[in-house]
Amino acid sequence: MTDQPQTDSKPKKLFIKTYGCQMNVYDSERMAEAMGAEGYVTTEVAEEADMVLLNTCHIREKAAEKVYSDLGRLRPLKAAKPDLKIGVAGCVAQAEGAEILERMPLVDLVVGPQSYHRLPAMAKAAGEGRKSVDTDFPAEDKFDHLPTRDLPKRGPTAFLTVQEGCDKFCAFCVVPYTRGAEVSRPAERILTEARALVDRGVREITLLGQNVNAYHGHDGGLGGLVRDLARIEGLARIRYTTSHPNDMDEALIAAHGEEPKLMPYLHLPVQSGSDRILKAMNRKHTAEAYLRLVEKIRAARPDILLTSDFIVGFPGETDEDFEATMDLIRAVGYGAAFSFKYSSRPGTPAAERAPVAAEVADERLQRLQALLTEQQRAAQTAMVGREVEVLIEKPGRLPGQMVGKSGHLHAVALSHPDARPGALGRVRITASNPNSLAGEWLGA
Ligand code: 5AD
Ligand code: SF4
């Protein structure tokens, strides 16, 4: 027996809050793994944490400001527990760097998205009372220095970042500044990571990148990578997000037609249906070119479900421009979509331009969302009576209920003893609810 206090051997606890996109979800997992190698275990309860890490999003003003209000809310916790370390990671960290320490003295470390491999050293410095800020774009690949994903079993779905950054410079967007230039990870490394995920129980992988279809770490581009991944035994499904219309090359479109593991679902943001606004946004394509592309993709994979992002109230948007967006939505017929009111972001070209009146933008957003909701309902209702393949993910809200996803990424709720997490089965859709479908398990 030693007289060593028990607390010394207790693992430290890390609470991570993730804001924004799926790339942040992936990064948070990797940071948890990196800190795990330093003896931290994750907790869902901020109050019991030794370190709180906010993995932030800078895409719209609201998301960025939320970080500061959440930091403010951590004050009493830090006062009650002076050893608590607080870190800010992600795109707000990148955009605002040391300013965060000035505005929020309770913060101990600020780490940008390209520097996560340095987090353990920064956490150690914080433990010794030294604050640090790292928002470099280092030459080394952060993923090379993060622990390999040789870890315990996990759920049936996983994200895998294959590409980061963006060279497109849409006039409204902070991503090229917060995430930097496009960088693709080598295909070999992605395949190794994917195999390790499959060994841990993963059956569906969603490849991530801010501009994922600009991936160039494989001779055949993203289409080539998808085909190589599809050869991994045990991997049942592949998805990818987010794509730019101008990077949908022939090989990728062909993969949609030929590779059964590539799911019939594509998030293909268009932002606006007005050529004038598309030009002002620096999107570098017309509405007509987008519609032609949609036709081509549907020719390759007729049952593909399309989704998009839209911005309303971009500076200079007239009623006529907005109607052109509504027309494009009617012409495409989306399965779902995200829509946002334009938010002026410091440092972007559009920030200099005169805004559309807030009431006008509000009214447009409401109309656009009503149309998109109608389309989403129609896409769901069309599934009723049909047989689809569902990958079961987790228990639902009702006792005995399980929830999985169809190829179209519709959530499907059902009950059957064989429908366990990771099971892939045929399901008859019996009803459409506001945000999910109900189904009947027919068998694996
Ligand atoms: N204002 C509103 N929406 C934005 N997005 C990106 N930047 C802005 C902005 N400044 C939206 C785009 C993009 C999605 C991720 O966020 O629609 O596709
Ligand atoms: Fe931002 Fe996407 Fe445009 Fe890149 S392509 S600048 S990430 S909206």
Give a description of the structure.
- The protein is 34% helix and 22% strand.
- The chain has helices at 22-36, 61-73, 75-80, 90-96, 99-103, 119-127, 142-145, 175-178, 187-199, 221-230, 250-258, 275-280, 287-300, 319-332, 358-381; strands at residues 12-18, 40-42, 51-56, 85-89, 109-111, 132-134, 157-161, 163-164, 183-184, 204-208, 237-241, 265-267, 305-312, 336-341, 387-395, 402-406, 411-414, 424-433, 436-443.
- Strands 2-1-3-4-5-6 form a 6-stranded parallel β-sheet, sandwiched between helices. A 5-stranded mixed β-barrel has the order 15-16-17-19-18.
- The protein folds into 3 domains: 10-134, Rossmann fold, CATH 3.40.50; 142-381, Alpha-Beta Horseshoe (pyruvate-formate lyase- activating enzyme); 387-443, OB fold (Dihydrolipoamide Acetyltransferase, E2P) (Beta Barrel), CATH 2.40.50.
- The chain is globular and about 60 Å long.
- It binds 5'-deoxyadenosine (5AD) and iron/sulfur cluster.
